[in-house]
Amino acid sequence: MIGRLLGPEPFPSYVVVLDETALPDNCMEIVEVQERKILLARRFGKLYALDNACPHLGGSLGRGTLKDNAVVCPLHHWIFDLSTGKAVSGSADEKVAVYEVKVEAGKIWLKLPS
Ligand code: FES
């Protein structure tokens, strides 16, 4: 399911992207922020945010699977580290952008690049 932007709130450069309860542990969600699809993942209690598009051929990482501290692309199974966005299998030079994310006031907030 694609989440929707709920709107900017009191924290500069952060936007609310999802209710905290909408992302259980060890799950992923795709949200759309300023025309970008971003993968939110909560893994072992920690939140991560990465570009949803796989740099190989554009597979939707949010439709993939979580494995250890990484996400596996559903198309050709390249694996990306949730913390760094770096490929840990597939092409070692590839990377997806990562974003700062936090929980505050019951919402998940994403920091947009300036
Ligand atoms: S599109 Fe992701 S590994 Fe090919």
Shape: globular
Q: Please state the CA-atom Rg, rounded to the nearest Å.
A: 13 Å
Structural class label: mainly beta
> How many strand elements?
13
In spatial order, strands of the major sheet run: 1-4-5-6-11
Query: Runs with pLDDT <50, length 5+?
Result: none
Q: Percent helix among the residues?
A: under 10%
Termini separation comes to 27 Å
In CATH, what is the class?
A: Mainly Beta
Q: Overall pLDDT, averaged?
A: 91
What's the total helix number? 0
> How much of the residues is beta strand, in percent?
over 45%
Element-by-element helix/strand order: EEEEEEEEEEEEE
Q: Identify every distinct bound molecule in the structure, by name, code or SMILES.
A: FE2/S2 (inorganic) cluster
The number of domains is 1
How is this structure best described in words?
It is a single chain. This protein is 0% helix and 47% strand. It contains no helices and 13 strands. The strands form 3 sheets. The protein has a 5-stranded mixed beta sheet, with no helix packed on it. Bound molecules: FE2/S2 (inorganic) cluster. Residues 54, 56-59, 73, 75-76, 78, 90 line the site of FE2/S2 (inorganic) cluster (FES).
